[in-house]
Design goal:
The strands form 2 sheets. Strands 1, 2, 3, 4, 5, 6, 7 and 8 form an 8-stranded mixed β-sheet that branches. Strands 9, 10, 11, 12, 13, 14 and 15 form a 7-stranded mixed β-sheet that branches. By secondary structure, this protein is an alpha/beta fold. The protein is globular and about 60 Å long. Helix 1 (about 10-20) crosses helix 5, helix 3 crosses helix 4 (about 95-105) and helix 4 (about 95-105) runs parallel beside helix 5. Strand 10 (about 315) and strand 11 (about 320-325) form a beta hairpin. The protein contains 9 helices and 15 strands.
Length: about 400
Amino acid sequence: MKPVAVHEAVLQALLACGGRPDPAVVDGVRQLSELFTVARARLGFDYLSVAALRRAYLLYFAPVNIAKVLSILAEVPVLPARPLQILDLGSGPGVGALALLQYLSSQDTIDRAGTEVVLVDRSGATLDDARSLWTSVASTARSLEALRLRTVLLDLERPGSHAPWKRGTFDLVLLVNSLNELFRSARDPIARRTKLVEQLVESLAPDGTLVVIEPALRKTTRELHEIRDRILSRGQATVYSPCLHDRPCPALVHPDDWCHEERPWDPPGIVKEIDRSVGFIKDALKFSYLVLRRDGRTIVDRAPDVYRVVSERMAMKGEQRVWLCNETGRQLVGRLDKERSKTNAGFDLWERGTIVRVTEIDRPGSVGRIRETAKAEVVRGILGEGSYSNASKEDFSEKGCRQD
């Protein structure tokens, strides 16, 4: 399986906009990392309006978040072969749009003329960056030059009746690390965020897709689980992924549980360079996410013996275990090393996010057992079939990047 990789044309555009890493960028990465994790109470201010923090975001967090979007675009249904309307809400400098450009560059046999990508954010400075980055990347591939970009400066908490999602229909809606930052001072933030997601679902085309990506933190992820449950309880949408059911989220039963993803990626040199200076190791993509649709389509056919792996593999003495989740709930399952067989050898390939099938789980106690006679297999890997994530250089021309 090949890890997700951000294309060189995208990286060069980010460097052209943010400049080479310097001590100010390194310090900005430290500040933003603290802000995104342990100092989240200060997230109310417009941190991307600060030039040093905006540069730090462009050079470090933008490649990471672009890769996250790429990993989800690899598993959602292929976008319809027609002119598309796409919305990136809370876009920042357009990480969703940049991931989309890389994704669409792998489909250059499809005519996308007439496609419009709408970026909405409250920061004019970051929308300026988004326009510059879009121009640089779109100019490097002939198949992308026909796409249109529109930016909308808007307070997402007070959007008014002219908000794009209230006036148009979209084939794809992206919210990348933005939902958790909205309505933080509201009496019921979950209710306000749920209402926004409901409006976005209503704006979807009949075969449209809504993608929400959030930080892999317990609080933000559990809040996403709550929003999921409220949306599903009203029957407005169904889950395409990651869940294999539309029942209440079993991770909310116990306050210490939450369900997040970890995906492999190929960190670009700029991220590795900053990691060395800051002392970080960004060797995997960690996030939580939710993909909703209105047509009932799901990532795989659901069945009682089909599960998603929702934990790391846990090596015990003489045994390995994982947590599984489907319509029957969350359950801890293990296979004794001595019971490894030809039929259950697929268990060795199970990892967080993999969709698997197991024909028989013996439940003698709190841990289910995959016995020697059971059949265990991988239904879908974490990047699935036909991933575009390592698009070759031939997908982009050699025109290079420019900046207006």
